[in-house]
Amino acid sequence: xxxxxxxxxxxxxxxxxxxxxxxxxxxxxxxxxxxxxxxxxxxxxxxxxxxxxxxxxxxxxxxxxxxxxxxxxxxxxxxxxxxxxxxxxxxxxxxxxxxxxxxxxxxxxxxxxxxxxxxxxxxxxxxxxx
Length: 130
Fold this sequence. Notes:
This protein is mainly β and 130 residues long. The chain has one helix and 13 strands; from the N terminus they run βββββββββββββα.
């Protein structure tokens, strides 16, 4: 699988909005965005590491990154769930409404979780008149 090179991040600030708790010992890379919707909550544990350009968006529930977990650069995590203690998520991976067990290692470019309902073709949506 081809993974495009990561682009330089022009914003060195950490952007966080909503109910976000970051342990002081966590390492947050450049350009990280932490967004919690009104019904969401983000908790970053002790010693966790979020790589450059990571986006974490909690929707409809809690999203936790437990102690020692590592999210590589460009990881997108959306919905609710957690990354277990000491788990490692490869660069440019996408996680939708899923939990990763402790000590799990995901390869770069992985897509995990339920993205949504499958798209039906036009013929499957409505019966054709006979």
